[in-house]
Design goal:
Shape of chain B: globular
Strand content of chain B: 5-15%
Number of helices of chain B: 10
Distance between the termini of chain B: 64 Å
Helix content of chain A: 40-55%
Largest interface: A-B, 73 and 75 residues
Number of helices of chain A: 18
Number of domains of chain B: 2
Number of domains of chain A: 3
Oligomer: heterodimer
């Protein structure tokens, strides 16, 4: 192992740039640790205590940027520092060459890009409604990425959008595909003949990726926001999006993903679906009404994976049945039994550490139905031996990046849970695609490896069960990400639902 | 309802990022064409005095960010040019527009006489003393970053016991510590000083050894930018986003202000919020002791 550093005199890089640079270098081959700090005396001490204070770093003053790399070999360290130089140079070049002035108002943005017809709004919630209203009045469809928008504002905005024949996607809309353009957190999926309407982001991503794996693509995907089908909002955008998909020639089948609405809105949605004249699949996670073929061409299913497989079967005019595991069931049950047998007495709990809110919610439902009560920050009043945390919830992201971008909060939780003798399984989602971290599996892998090793030293086997939501076309590459997390000792299943079932099985549930 | 035509949803292949009016310490690309003088719309009273003390003198560009240009003023301290809106630093000057397409780069000299600042609004950036208008728990924020957790806890204990020596020791441990252009420890300390000036202003003014020791550490142990935030904070002057949190008059306005502050920089706002929160807690402990 070796350490090397470089110092840039009076190099003022903003904080986001420093964090991005450090994160980028950590993904380089053979690199174990990276520090990118200003060379203040306190940071010298910090580097010294971490064993990272090189001679170069020691010479830095408070206004100097210090980059120190700890790597497996000198060549790895040199390569990482060369990469750092490249990134700093690229940033400087970008500053020199960018002559374009960023618009500071929506009107000036429209002057720069006449003909634009959609505004993606990502500002703090308190200002989001005003920006969305402005965009709608300018005749733009709106993807409202912001959260913390009041339900009153949402109702008013959606009324205004409806009056103008525009889409108001959101609030808290993380993903959409319109006219072939991925928006927000989105995977690289082919264009195709399936139209999606989804309450939120990761549910839509899971279904889109599973459809892509099955050889089908997306015509349009509209995110409507988690509250759209509530009584207060009345399903306004869900119904309008269904109209739009009905009129869209490229869409041959429609999938609706969400949580159960009230009976009146559910009836309106089903009526609308029947009126489309196109086959449809409805996945309302946690709906009490049973799954089944439904009326007309509408099929009701209970998981995101079922939504994808039912849609594929319907398009191909094949008979569809829900299957708990898509691969060799006997082999999976054997592996579950082996994993269960390796547990120490007292290891009974599944802990879900999620980046995706809808995926976390789906895991809660499956774990609860198979393995007993689940505590979760998504349902503050519940309690149970099992626990599912959505690390994308407000309490974890205020002032911090979303866990799909920054793994820090989940890494801390993995390390803490390694010491808990009750934990049998860590259940994870790893979400790929545009907007997500460059190497989410690589970010988590060292922590998973260390957690398993820490448990092993205490005589326990800590199982890690994961699903990777992505495609081979994603910037991170599905196979490479699966390989990394498997290399860290995780068992990767093809969907979140399957991962949750396998986790429940290891923790003792009869499947 | 008007039906949608999906054709209307076909998107143009390019996108425009629309900058907000909030000054931030993040971003990338300064404009490159010739500097266009702007009109000063707002500045702090002390900043106005600084500008009046040095009429007609040019200043060196210290550093350039997307939404801010720092000038090294004749008094050896920074003066920040920003776009319109709430002042992002107590030493900031808001312009009607930041220089567009100008080749502004560190080392260049700018003549502030080029800016029309005579009609600018002068705002008070001092923290007014008074009670908190909301319960501390209204400030939802994650714990401070791991790199500063230990000295931050030490500062909280020292503040709770009103021990000047321990406060200085803990605060010195925070100065210049952690990630970021304004290191996380400095941001945390700025938040702590904001609360002290609000809730216990006499404590800092009565014991000048505390402020002198911290000012000395700020001058030598951190970056130029963090130094000036700290020196201003010691003098009771703060960015608009910090003033808005600490002087909020209701739970709702505190939450909204905290949300806005938390989004400043990569973690700067969150670390400042952490300092605000820990000091509120410490002073509550102290008053109950």
């Amino acid at each position: 192992m070796t350490r090397a550093g470089l110092v840039r005199k009076s190099a003022y890089q903003d904080s986001v740039a420093l964090l991005t640079l450090a994160r980028d270098l950590r993904t380089a081959a053979g690199v174990r640790e990276v520090a990118a700090l200003m060379g203040t005396p306190a940071n010298h001490d910090l580097l010294r205590q971490s064993g990272l204070l090189t001679a170069e770093a020691e010479s830095a003053g408070p206004n100097d940027l210090v980059i120190v790399v700890e790597a497996d070999s000198e060549s790895h360290a040199r390569a990482a520092l060369a990469r750092a130089e490249e990134l700093l140079a690229a940033r400087q070049q970008q500053r020199r060459s960018t002559g374009r002035v960023l618009p500071r108002t929506m009107e000036s943005a429209l002057r720069q890009l006449p003909g634009a017809n959609l505004a993606l709004i990502s500002v703090p919630g308190a200002w989001a409604a005003a920006e969305a209203r402005k965009a709608l009045r300018l005749g733009l469809h709106v993807m409202l990425f912001s959260d913390n928008v009041s339900v009153e504002d949402e109702v008013a905005l959606k009324r205004l959008a409806r009056d103008k024949g525009l889409l108001l996607m959101g609030p808290d809309c993380g993903t959409a595909y319109l006219g072939g353009a991925p928006l927000g957190f989105a995977n690289v999926v082919p264009r195709g003949r399936i139209g999606l309407v989804a309450a939120s982001g990761t549910g839509l991503q899971q279904v889109a990726c599973l459809l892509a794996a099955g050889g089908e693509g997306i015509s349009q995907a509209v995110g409507v926001g988690g509250r759209d089908m509530s009584r207060a909002v009345g399903g306004t955008m869900t119904l309008d999006a269904l109209d739009a998909l009905g009129a869209d020639a490229a869409t041959e089948l429609v999938v609706v993903i969400g949580k159960p609405p009230g009976p009146e809105i559910e009836r309106q949605v089903e009526d609308k679906l029947r009126g489309l004249g196109k086959p449809a699949v409805v996945a309302l996670l946690g709906a009490e009404r049973g799954v089944g073929p439904g009326e007309g061409k509408v099929r009701r299913v209970s998981t995101l994976e079922d939504a994808a497989t039912a849609a594929l079967s319907a398009l191909r005019r094949e008979t569809w049945t829900a299957r708990p595991f898509s691969r060799d069931g006997a082999a999976i049950h054997r592996r579950i039994a082996e994993a269960r047998a390796a547990l120490a007495p007292g290891q009974r709990a599944v802990h879900g550490l999620y980046a995706g809110g809808t995926l976390a919610y789906e895991a809660i439902l499956l774990l609860e139905s198979l393995a007993g009560p689940v505590a979760s920050n998504l349902r503050p009043h519940g309690d149970g031996i099992h626990r599912v945390i959505d690390f994308g919830a407000d309490e974890f992201t205020l002032g911090r990046a979303h866990p799909m971008i920054d793994p820090a909060s989940r890494i801390e939780a993995v390390a803490a849970l390694a010491k808990d003798p009750r934990v049998a399984v860590l259940l994870l989602d790893i979400v790929l695609g545009h907007g997500a971290a460059r190497d989410p599996a690589g970010d988590l892998a060292p922590a998973l490896r260390a957690a398993r090793e820490a448990a092993r030293r205490e005589g326990r086997t800590l199982h890690v069960v994961a699903s990777v939501i992505g495609t081979e076309g994603d910037p991170q590459g599905l196979a490479a990400q699966v390989a990394k997390v498997e290399d860290a000792g995780a068992w990767v299943l093809p969907s979140n639902a399957q991962a949750a079932r396998a986790a429940a099985g290891i923790a003792g549930a009869e499947l | 309802m008007m039906p949608f035509a999906m054709r209307a949803l076909d998107l143009a292949p390019t996108a425009i990022e629309c900058g907000g009016g909030v000054w931030g310490r993040s971003g990338a690309a300064p404009p490159q064409s010739q500097l266009t003088p702007g009109r000063v719309t707002r500045l702090g009273s002390v900043t106005r005095e600084r500008m009046q003390r040095a009429p007609g003198r040019s200043a060196e560009v210290h550093s350039v960010f997307e939404r801010a240009i720092n000038l090294l003023w004749s008094d050896g301290r920074l003066l920040t040019l920003q776009g319109p809106g709430r002042l992002g630093a107590p030493f900031a000057v808001a312009l009607s527009r930041l220089p567009e397409g100008g080749a502004v780069a560190p080392g260049m000299r700018l003549d502030p006489a080029a800016f029309d600042w005579g009609a600018a609004e002068t705002v008070d950036v001092h923290m007014p003393p008074g009670p908190l208008g909301f319960p501390v728990d209204a400030l939802m924020c994650p714990p401070v970053g791991a790199s500063i957790a230990t000295p931050a806890r030490a500062l909280e204990r020292a503040l709770a016991s009103r021990d000047g020596g321990a406060v200085v020791a803990a605060a010195r441990g925070l100065i210049g510590l952690g990630e970021g252009l304004t290191p996380a420890g400095d941001d945390c300390l700025v938040g702590a000083l904001a609360v002290l000036h609000r809730l216990a202003p006499g404590w800092l003014s009565e014991d000048s050894r505390v402020t002198e020791a911290l000012a000395g550490a700020a001058r030598t142990r951190t970056t130029d930018i963090a130094r000036d935030f700290l020196l201003e904070a010691l003098a009771g002057r703060f960015a608009g986003s910090v003033l808005a949190v600490v002087t909020a008059g209701s739970v709702l306005s505190a939450k909204l202000a905290a949300e806005r502050l938390a989004r400043v920089g990569a973690t700067s706002g969150a670390d400042t919020l952490g300092g605000i929160r820990l000091t509120c807690r410490a002073l509550e402990l102290g008053s109950g002791a």
